[in-house]
Amino acid sequence: MSDNSREPLDFLVLGHSPEGATGWPHPVSISVHPLGEMTLLNFSKGPHIANVGGQLRVTWVIVDDALKESFAEEFDACDAHWLVPYLARLAAGEGVTEHELIDAYRAKFGRYPKTELSANHTF
After folding, report:
1. What is the model's pTM?
2. What does the DSSP 8-state code read for residue 71?
3. Residue 20 to residues 16, 28, 32, 45: CA-CA distances in angstroms?
4. pLDDT (tens digit, 9 = 90+) per residue, 77-87?
């Protein structure tokens, strides 16, 4: 049987630092692949040539319906605190859909979010 665990998944880029952001020395992005309490979050920090990143399950980022303080800097840089209630619902196992996230993003920013492909690296 083949291992499909590393097949690319669609992620919505729902947090991103603005161009020329003041008070933040490098770009940051947060992308989401909604899967209830198994939702995956990708974080990317820094310019392309020297960026760092990682992937975590939503339950590592949201605890007791709140954002862990250790992630506040990234959410600040990305103007992504609007996303926390949706992530809290996902962490609780609620069925937040990709369409619901897209609609919320469009309501805030007036455009569709970008998407990116990434495999599940949380094993």
Report:
1. 0.86
2. G
3. 12, 12, 24, 15
4. 888 999 999 99
